[in-house]
Amino acid sequence: MSKKEEINVGRRDFFKKAGLGAGATAVAVTASQAGAVEAVAPQQKKSAGYSETDHVRKFYDLARF
């Protein structure tokens, strides 16, 4: 193998390992936050959801939806 090919192989290995490390980090962060979200979720109020108010109806009329 030439010196240039050896450098490219090293770079490829680096990017493979960096990608695996980033994926493992994302999984670890998600797993650690899952417990925190479950503890906070019951305290949050549920929103009423979408509500079509007068100004929304006026927008729809003007936009011809």
SSE order and pairing:
Layout: H1 3-40, H2 54-63
3D structure, described in words:
This protein has helices at residues 3-40, 54-63. The protein is mainly α. It has a domain at 1-37. It starts with a helix and ends with a helix.
Helix fraction by DSSP (H/I, runs of at least 4): over 70%
Low-pLDDT residue spans: none
How many strands, what sense, and barrel or not for the largest sheet?
A: none
What would the average pLDDT be, to the nearest integer?
A: 75
The strand count comes to 0
String of helices and strands: HH
Radius of gyration: 26 Å
Strand content: under 5%
Distance between the termini: 65 Å
Helix-strand makeup class: mainly alpha
Question: What are the main properties of this structure?
Answer:
65 residues; mainly alpha; elongated
Give a quick summary of the entry.
With 65 residues, the chain is mainly alpha-helical. It is 74% helix and 0% strand.
